[in-house]
Predict the 3D structure of the following.
Amino acid sequence: MMRFLSVALLAAVSSAAQDDKQDPREMQRQVALMIRQVDEKMEVVIKVLREKSPYYADKLEQARVRLKKEALAETKIQAILDHLNNERPELALKAGEDVAAVLKSLLDLLEDRTDTKALEEQKRALEQALEKLAEVRREEQKLEEKTRELNSERAKDWDQVRRDLDKILDDQKKLAAETEKGVPRELVERITEAIREIEKLEKEQEQAFKAAEDAKGRELRDIGEMTRKLGELIARQEKAKNDLEEFDRRHAGLADALKQIEKVIEDQKKVMNATAEAAEDPSKANMAALQKQQEDVGERTWQLGHALYEMKGLPEQARKQLLDGFLKDASDAQDAANEGLKENQPDLAKGDQERAVRDLEKARDVLKKLADEAAQSKPAEAQKLADEQKAIEKETKDAAGRMKKAAADPESPASTQKALDSAAEKTGQAGERQSAALQDLQKDESRAAGEDQEGALRHMREAHQELQRLQNALAQAEAQKFEPVARQQQALEGKAAALGRKVNELSRSEQALKQPQSAQAALQNAAGEMQNARQNMGSAGEQMSKGQPAQGQQAQQQAHKSLQQARRDLEKAREELQKKQEPDFHALAQEQEKLEQALQEKVTKWLQQKAKELEKSGDEASRGQAAQARDAQQSSEQAQQQMQQAQRQLDQQQPDSAQGARAQQEARKKLEETRKKLEELSKRPLDEKEKERADKLAAEQKRVKELTDELQKRVEQMQRENAARSLQRAGDNMQQAQGQLQQGQPQGAQQDEQEALEDLKQAEQELKDALEELKRMAEEELLMQLEAELRKVIETQEIINKETKTLDAAARIQGKLDREERVKSRELAGAQDGLSEHLAEVEKKLTEENVEVFRFVINSAILDMGESAEHLRKEDPGERTQEVQEDVLRKLRELLEAFNLKRKASKGGGGGQGGGGGHPPLVPDLVQLNMMKKIQEAILRKTEAFERKFKAEGNDLGPVEKQILKRLTEEEGELGRIMEKFIQKFEQAKKEQEEE
């Protein structure tokens, strides 16, 4: 896609030169159109690349920004057209050169022609800026320390009394916390009062319900009772049906889960065995297929866990053991195995698969135990379901009989008789279906029983609707009777609202929020139930006023239940609070007395004495400070009074901890007030010597500010906007500090200097981040160049290999090479030598970048190329030559794949970056070690093949065989040397970490 965009831009620039007959103005319009199209294409491609290749996305974004910034389509091309229209070809040519230059820079971006020299210059500029910034930070740090020293000397008269006051304030807070650990009697009393009010409201709600019942006529009461009873039976039948469904799901689900997990274990073992084979011989492994199989087993494990999570009725301990334990651990192990297979690490994946099998087998054992226990308890559970169904059937038939009897009442209107008769018939039909359901249950035919239960429910609901319609019709005729009840209910709603607010405030009070979590939760639940009660009371009043007593009474009952629950929650909260262990109030009182005496001796008296000293000084400033000291003394005395009151409350025969806690709280407020006044007192005017020091500090601050401004301009020129803004904030704070020092206010200056230091630190971090980004770009550019070089080498090597095979085929057919083919063989030898020299340049760069393993692979490939060239010069394109050439291709392709692994490691932040001497490797240790593993496996395979061949033939080694064996030995030795370097580096890193 990047290549397509480059070609498109190139076409836009060069198309004019290729068509002399085209009108220049039309040609420029086409250029503008193509650039707009390229811009649109860029936007689409950036979105695609953002996830897959952020590096290319950034490059393309840079090109697009430059394209827009230069405003080619709208400004410069328009200028060309204007010059052409006005017959100014020399100006049009100059503008056209500008356009071409910009497009050329875009091509450089799109073709990855990063200017490495420019990158190096930017890095040096950033490094110099960081050195300058470090100098500025050191200077500012010295200034802040000098300013702090000046402030400390100014306030040394006040330091001791402030430390004493801080100690007293801290001890007072701790003492208050100890006091509040006991039973909060005031809170308990408020809860008890709320409970009494709710009990009273409960009784009033019961009376309102009775009033509604009394307001009904006899016929309406009877119909209402039948409706209520049938509603209860419907609820019971629904529950019985749900219980039966859950019963079936649990028993069938456990059996199904047991079958599923057996299958999952079996398939996981198959994947594990296949992975073990892949670890032994990676060349025969289909890692993609293995990964797909592992994903499938993992998905089925997750589905099994989800099914068990949805299954109700499992014992909590077993559920936790299965879901949070074995199945979760198995799923985690499967995910790890999947990742191992993705990274082509079958040996690691196998260990995770073994762990998954063990956890799955443990889960299977738990499931088997649950299934066995369920099988044992199944008859008793089934009998319980049948007993409940039998009881529902009996009560339903009784209800049908009462309806039938009421329908036969000659005093009832015909419409009433008809409705009751219909309801009785449907209720009777429900009873028959319930009877059938009972028989089904006794035969262990759950599905048929469920169908009969559903049929019974349908008849019961129809009957219930008949009764409700009849009840509503009768209620409408008596609507006026319920108006007093509606007004009564509305009044109760107002009481519930007021009481609800009281309980809510109680649950959110400061004292309540200090209590145990269980007590807090109970109080909050009570507040919620009061809100429900109020809403139901309002609904009851509204229904009564509409002449719908059935719905109104239902709301009344719900309100009564909410009141009961609110009362129970408050009782629970009170019980929790009363369990709290009382502290030793006498000891607390003694501690409070000691604190009060300490405040008197160390703070109040000192302030009193200081005020007298300042008053004697006679100057206006001292008199002002004396007044401040008197004010602080007064606050300290008020704190003493509150402490004395707290002590008396705590030291009573029956301590009032609530009153004591309030007094302690007031004492703490007064102590904090005294602390603030002491802070103000410490800000005395500077004397002559201190003023002289402050002026010197101000001059130093001005100089550091100028250094910061100079650095800011340099950073702005480098277009590092965030760092520049941080430096600007630092400069502003320095200027404020300078002003504070000049005004004789070093305390304010110290705060500004501290903020300036924070801004400098932020700027430093931003510049460091920018430097790291440049290093990353340079590294990425180098990797891209090396990768491109490798691809070219691979392409050329493939051609050499192909030509060598062609020569060998000819030699086999003809018995030898002809003259032209011998010349071709020597030409291929020369090409192989040239490629070897080209690859040596890549090796040199890898050596500079501290990439030992990759350098080793390149060196090995160069040696292989040398051997290949030697054979070709001898006009021998045979088996050994081709074997060596294939080794070259294999090594280079593995190296190219390793570059891709490096990108993954960089993106995920993984892999050690040890440097072995300060210069970090271009490629992380993890990627190099993975490459080393592949090299070792290849050497091992070659050694085994050589040994098999040598033993089979039983001949002495010839020159070629000796050369092969020598190469294998040398490579093994070099590989051992590299591994030793890695081990030493890791041991050094471990030692440094332990020392830290």
Summary: The mean pLDDT is 79. The CA atoms of residues 48 and 145 lie 53 Å apart.
